[in-house]
Amino acid sequence: MRREILANEIELGQPLKSALVDELGFPVADEGTVFQTGDEVALVLQAGRCFWADDMAPLRPDEPSPPWAGGYGLLVGTLLHVKRPGDLERAWVSRLIGFNDDAVFVAWPGLAGMSAEPCDGDLVLVRGFTGTSIHSFSARVRATSRTPFPYWMLTDISHVDAREMRGSIRVPVRLAGRMSRVDGAEAPQTVLITDLSTGGVSVSTANDALTAPGLQVRLAFTLRTGGIKSTFSLEGWTRQDPNAGAAAPYHSVGVAFDGYGEREALLLRSFVHEQLLESATMRPAKLAKD
User: Fold this and answer.
1) Which residues are in the Type III secretion system flagellar brake protein YcgR PilZN domain (predicted)?
2) What is the chain's alpha carbon radius of gyration, rounded to the nearest angstrom?
3) Distance between CA 73 and CA 290 in Å, rounded?
4) 7: which DSSP letter?
5) Which of 11, 79, 99, 126 qualifies as a FRET site for 18, CA 20 to 30 Å off?
6) How does DSSP assign 52-77, residue by residue?
7) Nearest residue to 177 (alpha-carbon basis) of 214, 213, 212, 223
């Protein structure tokens, strides 16, 4: 059974030997992150429970394969979110593992270590993100199997909705990062990123040395998107952030990114939209009836 991390288990001034993850296995602090003070540790842990990543078994994507039939651009290995119609709870997490002309095969959906329990014939909603659009489908659970690995077979598939995602959408996150002045005028700090968009982030800090507007800073952090872990080191400028609201004794500041490459743009966009999938209510206006 996973055991929650206590503050005294994190050695100050030493790189983490394993990454920290939240209850659902999403990364919070990457392996190698250094916490210099107890306040930095408290900043990250006060936002919720943390566990060592070594206790988890994150899904990895399969090698890309041809698009899903119909040209929607969903590849084998694509993260999927599955729900029953009208269900207000968080969606189950799955992955596309194969398809043919009449059926789609997905990894057995689950959430927080608990597997979904379907009945044959159940109507479900499925969502996936192509990189530019979120596609929603209705389908029926035609068969399930635990061997040779857990999966569902879905049939009666109907494309319900496609939503093209544009603009700089902001999503809440909980990620430890390392922030420093580009000119080296202040010591680097381990900070907590509390929301993120393709244009910048909101940050909570344990002290106010890097919170004055107009500072050129460098922010290093790690994201996992599409099952792949990527490390970023982006420069930007601090600014007042009306969306930030760190509780005392912590401090808040916004960071506007000062440009980045095509690879970073694609990964940030993919991460943002995976988070949107995670929080989607998945309640389209019209569905096939039971």
Assistant:
1) 76-155
2) 21
3) 28
4) G
5) 79
6) EGGG-----PPPP-SPPTTT--PPTT
7) 223
Pair of tokens at residue 242: 């009306």
Cα distances (Å, whole numbers) of residue 138 to 7, 42, 159, 161, 213: 45, 43, 7, 10, 48
Residue spans in the chain of domains classed CATH 2.30.110.10: 79-164
The CATH architecture of the domain made up of 79-164 is: Roll (2.30)
Mean pLDDT in residue range 14-42: 85
Question: Which residues face 186 on adjacent strands?
Answer: none
Give the three-class secondary structure for 10: coil
Against a cut of 0.70, is the pTM above it? no
Quote the pLDDT of residue 249: 79
Q: Which helix (H) or strand (E) holds 273?
A: helix 262-279
Give the pLDDT score at 72.
Answer: 58
Extract the runs of DSSP E, i.e. beta strands, from the chain: 20-21, 27-29, 51-52, 79-83, 92-99, 104-107, 110-111, 114-115, 123-129, 133-145, 151-164, 171-181, 189-196, 200-205, 216-225, 228-239, 251-257
CA distance 162 to 157: 14
Find residue 137's DSSP bridge partners: 126, 159
Class assignment of domain 20-50+168-259?
mainly beta
Tell me the C-alpha distance between 80 and 92, whole Å: 8
Q: Classify each residue of 213-225 as buried b or exposed e, where b means 16 or more C-beta atoms within 10 Å of its C-beta.
A: eebebbbebbbbb
